[in-house]
């Protein structure tokens, strides 16, 4: 992977040092010695750590934005069995090298490399996106990641975070940081629905939900009782919460596990009153 000076402006330099990747031993060609697009390869052990952090498997489509010599998507296909890999790289020399590396690794039927500006790339099909860019570029890319990727997609960045978007997990690989974010479903808005029991009981509810990345909160009413839910945790399209509150004069605990699909909410709610547990089916719509 590489850091492109497309994002840093024009570099005035008297010499350029090209750092060699480890996939091939070929000497750099003149087309790689381009002061406008130098890159820094991610070490192989960090590549492995990033793919492990993303839990890449056989059903995954992996996009590497700023793919350099192609090592990450090649490794995803070769060693993790990824269904497909796409590398996005602005430097045509590196795209050529990536294609050669893919052929050598025997995965050219499952990976491809696109010469393109990553901000112009449609990566909405990706289930995993990997990055080794810069903090400023990560922040500029963040809205596109959140809007274009499906809930549950994973984003992994080598070395650099995403500002105030707290990672879901951070690991160290040979003293280098790798960060994981799981794209949350958008849940902000007003939800109305019912809690239904097996005995036929139906309890109406209304929730006004607010969201900051993978964290949400809500206020509303259940059967006419005002509630406040300050901590709702989102993991992809699913959210969970546990809440204690007095309901009709009785202390109760509520556990909710639900899934959000666009404007529909489905799941279960367990209500514990100290002596018994009652399970409700939860359904709702966003207005």
TrEMBL record:
It comes from the Bacteria. GO terms for molecular function: protein-lysine N-methyltransferase activity. CDD domains: AdoMet_MTases. Residues 62-131 form the Methyltransferase domain. Residues 1-26 form the signal peptide. SUPFAM superfamilies: S-adenosyl-L-methionine-dependent methyltransferases. Transmembrane segments: none annotated. InterPro entries: FAM173A/B, Methyltransf_25, SAM-dependent_MTases_sf. GO terms for biological process: methylation. Keywords: Methyltransferase, S-adenosyl-L-methionine, Signal, Transferase. This is RNA methylase. The lineage of its organism: Bacteria, Bacillati, Cyanobacteriota, Cyanophyceae, Leptolyngbyales.
């Amino acid at each position: 992977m590489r850091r492109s000076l497309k994002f840093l402006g024009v570099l005035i330099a008297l010499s350029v040092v090209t750092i060699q990747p480890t996939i091939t031993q070929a000497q750099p060609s003149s087309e790689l010695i381009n002061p406008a697009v130098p890159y820094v390869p991610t070490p192989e052990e960090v590549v492995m750590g990033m793919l492990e952090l993303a839990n890449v498997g056989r059903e995954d489509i992996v996009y590497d934005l700023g793919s350099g010599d192609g090592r990450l998507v090649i490794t995803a296909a070769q060693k993790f069995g990824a269904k497909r890999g796409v590398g996005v790289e602005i430097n045509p020399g590196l795209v050529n090298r990536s294609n050669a590396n893919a052929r050598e690794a025997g995965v050219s039927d499952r990976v491809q490399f696109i010469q393109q500006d990553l901000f112009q790339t449609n990566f909405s099909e990706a289930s995993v996106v990997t990055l080794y860019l810069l903090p400023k570029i990560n922040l500029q890319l963040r809205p596109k990641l959140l809007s274009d990727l499906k809930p549950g997609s994973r984003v992994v960045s080598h070395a650099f975070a995403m500002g105030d978007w707290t990672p879901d997990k951070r690991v160290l690989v040979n003293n280098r940081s790798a960060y994981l974010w799981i794209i949350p479903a958008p849940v902000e808005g007003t939800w109305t629905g019912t809690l239904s029991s097996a005995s036929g009981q139906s309890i109406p509810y209304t929730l006004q939900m607010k969201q900051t990345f993978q964290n949400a909160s809500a206020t509303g009413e259940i059967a006419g009782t005002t509630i406040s839910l300050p901590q709702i945790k989102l993991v992809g399209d699913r959210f969970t919460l546990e809440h204690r509150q007095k309901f009709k004069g009785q202390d109760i605990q509520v556990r909710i596990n639900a899934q959000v699909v666009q404007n529909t909410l489905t799941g279960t709610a367990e209500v514990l009153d100290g002596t018994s547990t009652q399970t409700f089916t939860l359904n709702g719509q966003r207005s």
